Amino acid sequence: MFLLQIIFSAFLALQSTQVFSATPKCEVSAGKKFCSQVNFVKGISRKRDSKFNISFFDKKGRKLKLDALPQVKLWMKMKGGHEHGSETVKIKKLKQGYLVENVWFLMLGRWELRMEIMLRGQKFTDTVSLCVKKQEKLSHIGECSS
Fold first, then answer.
1. Which pTM was predicted?
2. Among 2, 16, 145, which residue's Cα sits nearest to residue 73?
3. 3-state class (DSSP) for residue 136
4. pLDDT in tens, 52-105
5. Which among 114, 118, 126, 130 is positioned nearest to 50, based on CA atoms?
6. Which residues contact 120 (CB under 8 A, 6 or more apart)?
7. What is the rounded CA–CA span in Å between residue 74 and residue 15?
């Protein structure tokens, strides 16, 4: 299903509204083809829309033009093995990257941000793990620690 290697940092600047910096971090790597960068506009919250910006670039930091809007889905991974999706997100193209809205994390725990990207006629799938904690400042991109 989602066969691509996941690379991400423990924390990123959650308050950043900048979509694409001069030296973007490669948070998700689709093989050796490209990277994506996710910046939550106001952090990851259970009480409001946790909209975020996402951009895609090559390994040299050059912005990529996707064939179509990326497909993004929120997915909850519960401890007992149960899983479920969330509301459908809204995606808008920006000058640099995309704005993803209607992002609601209603439950604590492990979430995944699942993406499908069309680039040069090929479909790539990526997964970014998210940890949603009771205290917003403790929520972050990456796996939840026990």
1. 0.77
2. 2
3. helix
4. 999 988 878 888 889 999 999 999 988 777 778 888 999 999 988 999 999 999
5. 130
6. 67
7. 20
Distances (CA, A) of 109 to 31, 81, 96, 146: 28, 13, 31, 10
Q: For residue 50, give every residue at least 6 positions away whose Cβ sits within 8 Å of its Cβ, in sequence order, or none.
A: 40, 41, 42, 43, 44, 103, 104, 105
Contact residues for 112 (Cβ-Cβ < 8 A; gap 6+): 74, 75, 76, 77, 127, 128, 129, 130
If you count them, how many residues does the chain have?
146
- How far apart are the C-alpha atoms of 52 and 82, rounded to whole Å? 26
- Cα 119 to chain center, whole Å? 17
Residue at token pair 């209603």: 106
- Tokens 């290697």, located at residue: 5
Helix (H, G, I), strand (E, B) or coil at 137: helix
